[in-house]
Amino acid sequence: MVIERRWKRWVYFYAPLTLFVIGTLFPFYWMFITAIRPDHELYRSWRAVTNTPFWTLQPTLAHFQDLLARTTFPRWLWNTFFIACVSTGISLFCGLLAGYALARLRFPMAGTLGTAIFVTYLVPPTLLFIP
Question: Do 45 and 63 have their domain in common?
Fold first, then answer.
């Protein structure tokens, strides 16, 4: 009876969980393998006898060297980081001021305005794109 419960638990819980985890992590594994694969393996036919799509026999970091040395990717990365930090800071500052005003200051319809702001957060932003 105990063995049957363990078996059912494994089949109904761990087997789907394992499939879910593998399905979730596989794209990251594929990106990593593709990033360290040399060019001649990337452009090889899928029907080739020596094709090994799930691993590489000659890993290389040449693609990362090209990315960092021959392009302006580090500059793009810095610009993205800077814009993200500045826009987050501005948003946080404005949100703090608005939150303080809604929480501390008493004015007519303050409760209604706070509820309206809260309800707008419940609507997914993608629905706002529908005309």
Answer: yes
